[in-house]
Amino acid sequence: MTSPQSRPLKVALLGCGTVGSAVLRLIGEQAHDLTARVGRPVEVAGIAVRRPDHHPDVPQHLLTTDAQTLVTREDVDLVVEVIGGIEPARTLILAALESGKSVVSANKALLADDGPLLHATAAKCGVDLYYEAAVAGAIPLLRPLRESLAGDQLRRVVGIVNGTTNYILSRMAETGAGFAEALAEATELGYAEADPTADVDGFDAAAKAAILASLAFHTPVSAADVYREGISAVSATDVARAAEIGCTVKLLAICERVGNGDGDSVAVRVHPAMIPTSHPLASVGGAFNAVFVEAEAAGQLMFYGQGAGGEPTASAVLGDLVAVARNRLAGASGQGPTGYANLAVRPIADTPTRYHVSLDVADKPGVLATVAQEFARHEVSIATVRQNGHGDAATLVIVTHSAPDSALSATISALRDMPAVRGVTSVLRVEGLS
Amino acid sequence: MTSPQSRPLKVALLGCGTVGSAVLRLIGEQAHDLTARVGRPVEVAGIAVRRPDHHPDVPQHLLTTDAQTLVTREDVDLVVEVIGGIEPARTLILAALESGKSVVSANKALLADDGPLLHATAAKCGVDLYYEAAVAGAIPLLRPLRESLAGDQLRRVVGIVNGTTNYILSRMAETGAGFAEALAEATELGYAEADPTADVDGFDAAAKAAILASLAFHTPVSAADVYREGISAVSATDVARAAEIGCTVKLLAICERVGNGDGDSVAVRVHPAMIPTSHPLASVGGAFNAVFVEAEAAGQLMFYGQGAGGEPTASAVLGDLVAVARNRLAGASGQGPTGYANLAVRPIADTPTRYHVSLDVADKPGVLATVAQEFARHEVSIATVRQNGHGDAATLVIVTHSAPDSALSATISALRDMPAVRGVTSVLRVEGLS
User: Fold this and answer.
1) Per-residue pLDDT tens for A164-177?
2) What average pLDDT does range A276-302 have in this prediction?
3) CATH 3.30.70.260 spans which residues of chain A?
């Protein structure tokens, strides 16, 4: 006889790939601890997959192809979604929430695309929607942002949130290889997908940036709001130039609260940038992720760990699962409010950034003055200039102060058209310089 | 007219020093955000201090010397304790919990001394006891350990959790100074207290280690269970020897789950140790704190930030305040179970550690063999030996494999008595070597 108090909590698992099977395994292995932490046993009620015959190692009676029925089943309390992608994940999550199930998801694309609708549905139905695994894998990050720093004011969140591009850039720095060569190596070693577009063009990082900015600034930010540049244009020259000025090149997801006269706004962008080698993010190598946070009172914080992989992602899913299970038993929802600040999202053109520019110029008097004048004409102030002569040519390496991104890009365009400039050999934004 | 739904939540603040006045300021400055995040305004109902005339900048009508009455006042919902020390903090917190108030504390000494009683009282009364600020200041750490990793199995938590000793050791490494000289500098700059005992002898770190181990392993661990060595015996020679083998010296708080035939136990210790400069903790300099975590599924994680100071500590207090306020309005307690695993605490003698030993020996044939035999006699396996001859003497630098700490210390004692050994010039444990 089972009393209602000891009835197990039943979990519907959507998807049983790398992450799903790790979740399944952990629920089994940690059964004793989960029971102690939740207050009740946690059991898997069913697993929705497309091709049951592809999962011979899973208890066959749990498998179903009918995900829609599974997520609304009377006996299911909690739903774990690890399918990824927009559909059918969105429809299934909405159906689960509407049926009063709390949902744990690892789906960054969906959250970045349609977060406000999903949050509103969860709030309306009085259930939880947690998604720690969607950003930076196992690193506890979203919960600290949302909860631990809830009494503080966040200024900036700067993260290395894509392991594939970080591996490629790390290899370029170590070996001097170009992008294509480093990508080929990453693909061969399994660090890059056969179609690497989502990673190398920054789509994956942009989705994560949207989620981070939404939580950090209590403002709805979608992936479409995020300015995005990938790393395919980063050259071996860029990486070498970075090293010359004591920097390293990283693909950064940057979320900032920017003040102006009419109140604050939020700037969210993903692009490669030079950062000083002394910056805590600079030494984050290979496939690791790290997120650097600046808050008004807390100061500088950094979170570091594995950003992907079945086991690390499953660890984050299980942490959320314990939380939503405990909330359910307490009859409460753990969700904080999300979009109340509703700040404006500032376009990249108006966002203050800094540039590094390397130019090949004719080595004759007056060239530096002409170049400097072009920066001044766009109201861009120069922080440092280094000039190296070689024969009748010279290299100018310029780092600017902060200026609106549109002024900086207009300056670069103008420089390309100047007769004295033989070539613009490297242009990259710079972050983290004092 | 105020409806019950919009009645502000009232906070009693115990103590108004550096942290307390920062908490007071933040509650004022963040009023708008706190209301949005909590769902109700949060107001300070009273501030208990010993000497009201020492606080001219605080609204005088809020001040009281009668802390006992304040914490049990009908209109008080939440209590923030930032007095520190064991008494009267313990009596006041227990009175607050018994009166149905949730408590936020920054009191590491009290939590490490009497955690189980405080937790049991909170659970019995159905209220919350949160204390993120007690360990590693602003770094969100306790909540990730307790909640985000709740579905994972922790193996090790290794932290730099005392800024004073980290500053001193950093300066010794940078300047070659001895301990006394570096301590004098730290005192002059305000990084060390006039009486630095709690920091340099490792008491502060041991209290934090006890709290970390309790949460990480769901086992009651008190400060008295923690093996403790401070840094006053660390010499300039130790620091130089560390550098020679690619290491740096840090005061570490180490909490490990150690397996053996009869089930797992927990080893908790604080001592200086050499760690490889490539280890993520090695580059944590000055007054910063960082905690490195190894979990079964999540793998390696690191949390980094400011470990002390009024503002950072206040940020952690306010994060907890928002959480307990939300729990109160939801009628729920956010506290997870704490001591259910109740593992045995293993004494240092039985805990596996590794040693670095530097010896001055006579430079003649057979000495290395004699020394090696002494290690073997204690069943300590040697990982590496480096021998440098200079005249008729030689230096032996030995790093052992892992062995019970008692076997290692017995080996050192025996070496000191060997005729061939002219002196044991440096002995330090080694952590993080593969």
Assistant:
1) 999 999 999 999 99
2) 92
3) 348-430
Q: Which CATH architecture has domain B349-430?
A: 2-Layer Sandwich (3.30)
Six-digit token string for B303: 């949390």
Instruction: Report the candidate in B317, B306, B328, B310 with the shortest Cα–Cα distance to residue B81.
Output: B317
From B27's Cα to the closest Cα of chain A, the distance in A is: 8
Q: Is the predicted pLDDT of residue A278 greater than 90, yes or no?
A: no
Q: Which CATH architecture has domain A4-137+311-330?
A: 3-Layer(aba) Sandwich (3.40)
Sequence-separated (6 or more) residues with CB below 8 Å from residue B276: B246, B247, B282, B432, B433
Tell me where in chain A the CATH 3.40.50.720 domain(s) lie.
4-137+311-330
Q: Residue A336: what pLDDT?
A: 65
According to CATH, where is 3.40.50.720 located in chain B? 4-138+311-330
pLDDT digits (tens, 9 = 90+) for B34-57: 998 899 999 999 999 999 999 999
Range(s) for CATH 3.30.70.260 in chain B?
A: 349-430
- Three-class secondary structure of residue A111 per DSSP: helix
What 3-state DSSP class applies to A145? helix
Q: Is A35 helix (H, G, I), strand (E, B) or coil?
A: helix
Which tokens sit at B356? Answer: 């670095």
> Letter for the amino acid at B385?
V
* Cβ proximity of A352 and A406 under 8 Å: no
In terms of Cβ atoms closer than 10 Å to its own Cβ (0-12, 13-18, 19+), residue A115 is buried
Q: Find chain A residues with C-beta within 8 A of B326's C-beta.
A: 336
Q: How far apart are CA A184 and CA A193, in angstroms?
A: 10
Active site residue B10: no
- Report pLDDT digits (tens) over B370-429: 999 999 999 999 999 998 887 788 999 999 999 999 999 999 999 999 999 999 999 999
- The residues facing A248 across adjacent strands are A275
What would the pLDDT profile of A384-432 be if each residue is shown by its tens digit? Answer: 999 888 778 899 999 999 999 999 999 999 999 999 999 999 999 999 9
For domain A142-306, the question of CATH label 3.40.50.300 is answered with no
Looking at chain B, the domain(s) classified CATH 3.30.360.10 span 142-306
| Cβ–Cβ < 8 Å for B159, B212 | yes
Reply yes or no on whether the pLDDT at B336 is more than 70.
no
- CA gap A182, B128 in Å, rounded: 52
Distance CA B13, CA B200 (A): 30
Q: What ipTM is given for this predicted complex?
A: 0.89
- Give the nearest partner residue to B144 out of A26, A144, A341, using CB atoms: A144
Residue B337 near chain A (CB below 8 Å)? yes
Strand partners, A227: A269
For tokens 């560390």, the residue is B242
Closest alpha carbon within chain B to A320: B148
A348-430 CATH fold: Alpha-Beta Plaits (3.30.70)
Q: Which homologous superfamily is B4-138+311-330 in?
A: NAD(P)-binding Rossmann-like Domain (3.40.50.720)
Q: What is the pLDDT of residues A190-248, one digit of tens each?
A: 889 989 999 999 999 999 999 999 999 999 999 999 999 999 999 999 999 999 999 99
**Nearest CB to B36: which of A37, A311, A340?**
A340
